[in-house]
Amino acid sequence: MKKMLKMIGMGLLVLTVLAAVILTYLSKRPAVSGDYISRIKTGGSIEAKYLAMGPYEVSYWEQNVLQDFRKYEVYYPSDIGSGSAQYPAVIFSNGTGVKASKYPALLRHLASWGFIVMATEEENSWNGLSSELCLRTIIMLNETKEIEGWVDNPFYGHVDLDHVGVSGHSQGGVGVINASTENKHAGMIKAIYAASPTNMTLAAGLQWDYDPGLISAPIFLVSGTGSADENLVVSGRQLNDIYDAVPDTVTKVLARRSNADHPDMLTFADGYMTAWFMWQLQGDEDAAEAFTGEAAELTSNALYQDQRIRVK
To answer: Quick check: 137 and 52 in contact, CB under 8 A?
Structure first.
């Protein structure tokens, strides 16, 4: 019996090391090309609508910090300082080695739909700390009239702090769950998007523990059907395990993109990610139709499989 347990333990260790090597290898690949929107195939009108650029011009601001994630990188609607409108915020949690500077086109795209989007150069995002500090910074930006570089802070009074979301890929998928369950301002997070999140067994082996059972905000889980590297990070069964662990009192959505590998999921479901945040954080009824009703577009999109939707 002891010999069998030892063999099982060694097997898990080998898988953990192998998966860690694959994650590191994948992190060295280019993340998001500037023209990714034109390259991604869509399977529905809603997906296509929200994969396109939104109606807002986008500006960029950054602030250096002493944390190991180096700086806050913020994409936002250029006219944020005019009028009295408030804008919801989405914080991104990076995958292993995939810093925000590797996917600015993705961040700019979401901001074009009327979101304040914040990310960092974090390479160890699993614990949600960088997301927590981003949220604290967003609160500061909303409450402070003057910040370095601006006499008049354009964010002052224009952040909708009642509508904050988090988005993460791979290790960042773990980060957004921990950000919304473990950290000081977890209760402020109203929508979660986790793309190809590291499975619970592998995460535990890497000491990236997280508990989907603590989630209280609506969550959208996606992954690809992919190749061997995809299945080591999160197989279909493991993604369903995460979904099942989320309380049934929470709105939750699961879908797997056919023939997509682990790195692809940073962008391949971007149309539905944008629709998800438009529904959850902006109350967009058109976007909601991707996920709600008997004719929810996501359920009939031939590019996806294994869809599960529970709306509360």
So the answer is: no
Up-side HSE of residue 34: CA atoms within 13 Å toward CB?
A: 0
Residue 66: exposed, middle, or buried by beta-carbon count in 10 A (0-12, 13-18, 19+)? exposed
Domains, the chain, ranges and CATH? 2-29+43-310 (3.40.50.1820)
The DSSP symbol for 151 reads S
Position 1 scores a pLDDT of 54
CA 234 – CA 224 distance, rounded (Å): 9
Query: Torsion-angle region of residue 209: left (phi > 0), alpha (psi -120 to 50) or beta?
Result: beta
CA dist., res. 277 & res. 284, Å (int)? 9
Spans of the chain, pLDDT less than 50: 4-12, 14-15, 18, 20, 22, 25-28, 30
Contact (CB, 8 A) for 233 and 225 = no
The predicted structure's pLDDT at residue 229 = 61
* CA pair distance 153, 131, nearest whole angstrom: 22
Q: List, edge to edge, every strand of the sheet that includes 116-120.
A: 58-64, 71-77, 116-120, 87-93, 159-169, 189-195, 219-224, 252-257, 304-310
pLDDT for the residue 146: 85
